[in-house]
Design goal:
With about 180 residues, the protein is an all-alpha fold. It has eight helices and no strands. Helix 1 packs antiparallel against helix 2, helix 1 packs parallel to helix 3 and helix 2 crosses helix 4.
Length: about 180
Amino acid sequence: MNPRFITLISIVAAAALYRVLPHPVNFTPVGAIALFAGAKFADKYLALAVTLCAMFVADLFLGFYNSMAFVYAGIAAMVAIGFWLRNNNSLSKTIIATLAGSAAFYLLSNLGVWMMTDMYPHTAAGLVTNYLAAIPFLQNSLISNLLFVGLFFGAFHLLENKFSQLRLQNSQQNNLQAQ
């Protein structure tokens, strides 16, 4: 348990807690957690496990739902997009990753709503209607992802600069580059 790992776990846990507090619809740090974990945890599997566990713990309080597997797949996709940021961490690439992650989550989670509920007919027209109806949710999720990604990545960058023990060791950096 090194200081970097403890700090990363603390950030993910604190952000996951936000999900169970009152907030505007789809305005949570969940997507940002996924991108951040994918980019910052030295171990890819740990990044995915920590993110999905944080989601699951929040869902224990919020309740389970029919399209949960699709939501978790969307979060997993965002963690995978975060992997791309490991060695490509610039502002423009972080914004691209945030937009791509938001789109992946939108497509997967709303596919789940269409497939697992009777809200829309299970036809091509029903799927299109489903996606169109979900645009306001996409807007909130995109704004919150951009905001929280900036907050998490920016704050952690400042912490790494201030506290050298939070920086990756050479062996960890080599491991990230090899992955």
